[in-house]
Amino acid sequence: MPEFPPVDEQMAILMRGVEFGDDQTRTNMEAELRLRIEESRESGRPMRVYCGFDPTSSDLHLGHTVPLRKLRQFQELGHTVIFLIGTFTGTIGDPSDKESARTQQSLEEAMDNARGFTQQAHRVLDREKTVIDYNHRWLGELDFGGVIRLASHFTVQQFLARDNFSNRHAKGEPIWLHEFFYALMQGYDAIMLDTDVQIGGTDQLFNLMAGRTLMSARGMRPQVVLTFPILVGTDGHMRMSKSTGNHIGIDEAPGVIFTKVVNLPDHTFQNFSELVTRWSQEEIDGMVAQMDSGELEPQAAKRALAKEIVSIFHGEKRAEQAAVDAVRMHEGAAPSDAPQFRLSEEMNLLELMSASGLVRSKGEARRLIQQGGVRLNGEAVSDGVLTLVEPNGGESILQVGKKRFLRVVSTE
Amino acid sequence: MPEFPPVDEQMAILMRGVEFGDDQTRTNMEAELRLRIEESRESGRPMRVYCGFDPTSSDLHLGHTVPLRKLRQFQELGHTVIFLIGTFTGTIGDPSDKESARTQQSLEEAMDNARGFTQQAHRVLDREKTVIDYNHRWLGELDFGGVIRLASHFTVQQFLARDNFSNRHAKGEPIWLHEFFYALMQGYDAIMLDTDVQIGGTDQLFNLMAGRTLMSARGMRPQVVLTFPILVGTDGHMRMSKSTGNHIGIDEAPGVIFTKVVNLPDHTFQNFSELVTRWSQEEIDGMVAQMDSGELEPQAAKRALAKEIVSIFHGEKRAEQAAVDAVRMHEGAAPSDAPQFRLSEEMNLLELMSASGLVRSKGEARRLIQQGGVRLNGEAVSDGVLTLVEPNGGESILQVGKKRFLRVVSTE
Question: Which residues cross the membrane (chains A, B) (predicted)?
């Protein structure tokens, strides 16, 4: 029979970071979780814990890692973790995290994205201990009668009272009927997975609670739900999301992650530190206090944050390199992971800049050159149209503005 | 190739009694119907016309006969009529006709009711020419993905703008999510039946229009919709419905139908005359004018109406008998179709009255006797508790108030 750590030890780890809108829900959920942990210790049965992830892109970003790290804690305490990929829910899109309807996705696209998702999730989860499942397996099999039975436990008013829908309703923006189905699906997932605990962001509370409603209606014991704060995106305000474009992908190059973190608005330091780093609450509180008193420069704090985050996903060594590169880049030298462009014949500079993706168009290249914003091997380029780059068997460094670099390499 | 009557002749018959909330819809539908009729004449292809009926009870009532008579007209003009039984929609219930959610029904109950329904529909429709279909055939097969695709063409706001839902929403009464599914189902029926025309009550306009929306979304030509006024029930205000209890069943005894019609509120005379009788508009207008001027007693008008309605469903002869019986009943004699109670042993009068269903309880029987409202063979009964009715091989007439009669027959 497996041995689980003492109840209080598990509670301290699992409840860390939990956030609810009201104290009553917190009190109830805390009591229910404690009871389940006690029962699990007595029976030797691990708890079944899940979190769903809709594969709307093939890449996980830092926002996904918040629940993933909590799942990892459950794993380390000996419980069973189900990484549920929303291959069916992803085809509708969750309206929770945004104020407008999302485009529907095909099952094939969802399955394609699911592959990259799973691989990346294993950077946080224990590969040997993670159950991976796909909700199209049961949601795709549900018939109209089944959908009706799920829907009959909810009123339209309950949906309209949710923040995201009530805001859109007040603004007179269309709410498509199928957007109401998302919560039903998540609730049905909980039934089919027969879960003890479901975790998610605070904006998921309604969907998680729908699982409790439906489980009760089926005579099942309702799952415990635990919600966690939302990680903001690089804009510093909206939820991090690929579709908003404010994301930091965990598979992005170390230099890219480093730069994005350093460029975050200062006020996001605490949110990122608490949700993404391995730092203790005391360390974080200390740094925030130092920033408030002026002892610690926000820029220095964010460099430390950037190094920590790169280190989590790419290791200590690459984090060091990214920090050094950032300094070089700031001084005008190309970072070690700047993109390369292989040149096999003479090329007009405008064409080269456009073809390599350094600029969006030849027009933009011409304008930047005229403004003196383009450097070739450290020298400002003044005559854009006539300058030719000749293959020379070596490497030229092309720089646009302060941060955009290209290594031009001859293939001869 | 079948020959269809001239377009104008068909239009005059089919548009009679059509009612829309706004003139624009009427103009559009009239133009579309004319075009379909022209095409039908040119190609020799009959139009496909349908109306759905939810088998919420095993009996049709006068309200059902309004669209049935319109379907009959389509049949007589040579078109194909589909009598669609809502064996699936009936399991949810249409929220259109009422201001609260309906209890869900099982498919078995729906199929049971469908049998009686079909038989009774043939009193109005041409049995040889009517296609009977059941919508559980396709709605029961639809999967969650299919439901989502249907729902994605409608907004929550469109539903909330409907009278019945907006009233309930304003009153703070719960609207269950699955109630919104009804319109999707009707729309899907139209797709699967590939209809030219759907007919229904004016309160069905939203559901019928949902069919147009979904057909257009599928690249199909949207069906023509024709709506007709709603027949009120015996209360004179609410839609006639078995669940409200204000219905007149077409399978009820002639005397019962006759009495229910004579007891209708006076103001319903025109609604019933226009929607249920075979009378011409001129005849009806004439009678209404005579009632207004005092030349025609409302009671006499309603007796004529009652005779006409009984005659439609039970024939001329039984209508005559019902009229005679009504007069006798008014004078205190038992009508020929008064219920019988077979008595095989001595019975206390209070028990007899209660067991036969003449009153709801022995308490009520006792109270009525004390008030002098009970007669046995024409004599007022004064001593309720002690009086015994003895089997005598003959028949005793028991009368409560003016209209309730029971023939007590000895079985010896």
Answer: none
Closest partner residue to B152 among A147, A152, A178, by Cβ? A178
Residues in chain A closer than 8 A to B142 (CB atoms):
143-144
CB contact (8 A) between residue A155 and residue B141: no
pTM of structure: 0.74
Contact A303, A326 (CB under 8 A): yes
User: CB-side exposure of B323: number of CA atoms within 13 Å?
Assistant: 20
Could you tell me if B86 and B150 lie in one domain?
yes
CA distance A229 to A18: 7
B192 located within any domain = yes
Domain count, chain B: 3
Structure tokens at A390: 């000749």
Interface of B with A (CB under 8 A): 88, 91-92, 104, 139-148, 151-152, 154-157, 159-160, 165, 169, 172, 174-181, 184-185
Q: Give the range of the structural domain holding residue A375, as residue numbers without chain letter.
A: 338-408
Q: Which residues of B25-45 are buried (b: 16+ CB within 10 A; e: fewer)?
A: ebeebbebbbebbeebbeeeb
Q: Same structural domain for residues A55 and A175? A: yes
* A195 and A322 together in one domain: no
What does the alpha-carbon distance between residue A183 and residue A204 come to, in Å, rounded to a whole number? 9
Q: What is the pLDDT of residues A303-354, one digit of tens each?
A: 999 999 999 989 999 999 888 877 776 665 666 677 777 776 777 788 888 8
Q: For position A309, which CATH number holds? A: 1.10.240.10
Quick: pLDDT tens for A33-91: 999 999 999 999 999 999 999 888 778 999 999 999 999 999 999 999 999 999 998 87
